[in-house]
Amino acid sequence: MDIRLLSMYKVQYMEGKEMDISETVTFFNDLCCMAPGALIDERIRWMETEGNKVKATFTSNGITISAWLHFNEKGELINFISEDRYAAHEDGTITQLKWSTPLRDYKEIHGYRLASYAEAIYTYPDGDFTYATFTIKDIAKNVTR
Q: Is 121 helix (H, G, I), strand (E, B) or coil?
């Protein structure tokens, strides 16, 4: 994980097994939230269902993670929850925590029905920490510079 401000200033850099697992969770989350057509990938195993949610495992580069995908009555993804992601602490330690990305406010943007709002949340023993929020106002594809 390499976090940089303005692509120049190092904010945080971590590597190792835990970060590989965490980035696998992030990649699978990105597939679910931004490229649902890719969910027919052979690396995904659909395992259990309970009402409007389904459990899936995703394997990439020898790492297998799992997540629950929650859907509303319209079939829209409204949350992604995994217990496999790690959080880095100020003292340099890392802890495996529940991580979720609730999605909402679906609307049509250039002919695509998309969640226009999302959050990234770690669940610590003393409560939730929302460390990122996203609002989609517009999208573009196949853009050349």
A: strand
pTM of structure: 0.86
Q: Is residue 140 part of a domain?
A: no
In the chain, DSSP finds a helix count (H) and a strand count (E) of 1, 10
DSSP class of residue 101? -
In a domain, 25, yes or no: yes
Q: Label residue 32 left, alpha or beta by phi (over 0 means left) and psi (-120 to 50 means alpha).
A: alpha
- The residue behind tokens 């573009």 is 140
Q: Is 62 left (phi over 0), alpha (psi -120 to 50) or beta?
A: left
Q: How far apart are CA 13 and CA 32, in angstroms?
A: 26
Rounded to whole angstroms, what are the CA distances from 88 to 23, 85, 126, 130? 13, 10, 16, 14
Q: How far is CA 117 from CA 33, 129, 133, in A?
A: 11, 17, 7
Q: How much is the average pLDDT of 34-50?
A: 90
142 in any annotated domain: no
Residue 131, in any domain of the structure: yes
**Domain carrying residue 110:** 7-135
46-63 tens-digit pLDDT: 997 889 999 999 999 999
